[in-house]
Amino acid sequence: MTKIFKQLGRHWAACLAVVALLIVQAYCDLSLPDYTSKIVDTGIQQGGIESPVPDTVRSTTLQALELLMSENDAALADEAYTDPDADGMRTLNPDADTAALENAFTTPDVVLYMAAAKNAATAAGATDTVVPTAYDLDAVATQLAAASQAPGAREMLQSQLTDGLAQLDETVADSLSSQAMLLVALEYDAQGIAHDVQMSYLLRTGGQMLALTLLMVAVAVAVGFIASRVSAAIGRDLRRDVFRTVVGYSNAEIEKFSTASLITRTTNDIQQVQFVCVILLRMVAYAPILGIGGIMHVASGNTGLEWIIFVAVAALLALIAVLMNVAMPKFKQMQVLVDRLNLVSREILTGIMPIRAFSREEFEEKRFDRANTDLMKTQLFTNRTMVAMMPFMTLIMNGTSLLIVWFGGKAMDLGNMQVGEMIAFITYTMQIVMSFLMLSMVAVMLPRAGVAADRIDEVIKTPSTIHDPDAPKALPADGTHGVVAFHDVSFRYPGSDEDALEHISFTARPGETTAIIGSTGCGKSTLLNLIPRFYDVTEGSVTIDGVDVRDMTQAQLHDELGYVPQKGVLFSGTITSNLKFGGDHITDADAEQAAEIAQATEFISAKPEGFDSPIAQGGSNVSGGQKQRLSIARAIAKHPQIYLFDDSFSALDYKTDVALRRALKAKTDNATVIIVAQRISTVLHANQILVLDEGRLVGKGTHAQLMESCPAYQEIARSQLSQKELNLQKEGE
Ligand SMILES: Nc1ncnc2c1ncn2[C@@H]1O[C@H](COP(=O)(O)OP(=O)(O)OP(=O)(O)O)[C@@H](O)[C@H]1O
Prior knowledge:
The protein is an alpha/beta fold. It contains 28 helices and 14 strands.
């Protein structure tokens, strides 16, 4: 897991930018419920009126209100408004002390409203409260104005008011402020501006909500953009690192991991990490900000319903804990199953020809089906588990809403809460629950991506067993070049119980051909592979001009060698690009000459595009023999000092084999040639023949010498040459 964060750490600047943007996004997200609450409570229920102090008031109403205030408050109110205009309208000064005025106006507003309501009820002859009109307000204001003429009227009203207020219970006193707004609404109604005031409030608040939403959209797009870029860069870097490491691997490491697994690690595993990085960037920073912000908003509201959030979060965490326990082991298993599927499909696809030839399609299909079904079952299980989470999640969320509505309804009944407040509370609760949900989703994904990251890291951290020495030795500048010597070499494949080669010693000299012959599986290719260091010897040493191959750089070693593998491998491109594979120094003339020696010119010139003919991936559009000839030409074009042919003439017909070796002899006059061969005719004229048997050197000499002294060689010779040929050989001696 830390590996994923380490990857993100490399892009810290972008990550910080994402966090900053997410804070903005969370701020917007957390502000929106407040705006909804304002629109419902103030905009709709209170007609867009935010304060018990009207912005404009008619002199008659203000006069009536002032009568209900203490003398000080009345003076404050009077000063706060402009002088009456021609219509008797007074406007609130912008620099008035709003807090003090709100204090002064609240109770008189309520009293005046109640008086107007009473007036309305009396007029209608009703016993219940009747919603008063502007007419009722004016009537009450006129009555008050008349009453105020009497001496001591204000004092009398004040004392009545105080008595009345003392009888109000606490909850009513708490909601005085919203009651006071009713008077302001009535006053605006009388002025004929109530609709305009409400619309202006709704448009203003709605506009702010819209602006916040647009900002959120912009931020979300920016976050998505940066997160995708960062994760794509992480994916690219990881692929590059893995590829670089794998290219440096020796066969031992490749065999240890298996090609299929290396491919899964470079593709599927890196994709997992990439995906989780996007999620981390988009959710992990956002969820805590949203959760904490939501909790702070809810706590500041003092609604008494906070416990519902704790219940919801606890239920959610319990659910996630159960699911994680069930699904997590399967998540971990999935990668191994993907590996297996890749391995099976790779094997089947590369071996499709023999599979068809042996009519094994059904068997192989079943094998593939098994790997496929195993993966499907595991995926189905994890997906089902994750899907099962959804109804439970919805249940928890809806249950939470229900609890809030139930208890919120009671709070509203008691006047502790308004509708908008409750809506905001539900939204905040959902946000808090969502933030926990996001975190738990990440908690589910992280371990799986952690496994993928570990698998990638394992590749990157595995050093190649074959590497350049710290202080490489150069080949001696003078003396003969190209002397390959094996000094008591033994070799055992990693993980194997037996030595593939035992105590091999010989010297291959420049200008000479050294041939290695022996039965299948006796270790010929293994021996040859020790020279280019595809593997390192277990005991003894391999030297070139007296320098151990392990003491020189691999680049220098490979510069000396022209290696032709047992299985001709070509690369997609053209014939020329394949022939020039050995380096930029190879000219067209070199390539053509090499093709000539390798007896490839004939078939190349038969192609319409000649040397520019395309070669498909792996050389699948040329025959086995043509592939071999091109592989040989590729090695010759490099002009190496030492040629290594690993059974490279096997796919050539006898005539071509002879012509090729003759041309090669002329060209490689001074080079060291080591040939692994199955056919005795190929090695007949070699200066030195090594006979291998089960990894041991059982004969060394020329054909004639070995025919005399080596029973293993004689056996091979007898099995391949006719009696006549054997006699001819004898006579030739
Ligand atoms: N990568 C490997 N891991 C373990 N054992 C191996 C590996 N490659 C080859 N061997 C074993 O080493 C022995 C020698 O194999 P090698 O390929 O050198 O034989 P060879 O003489 O070249 O055979 P052929 O003529 O059929 O190509 C064999 O017994 C083989 O099973």
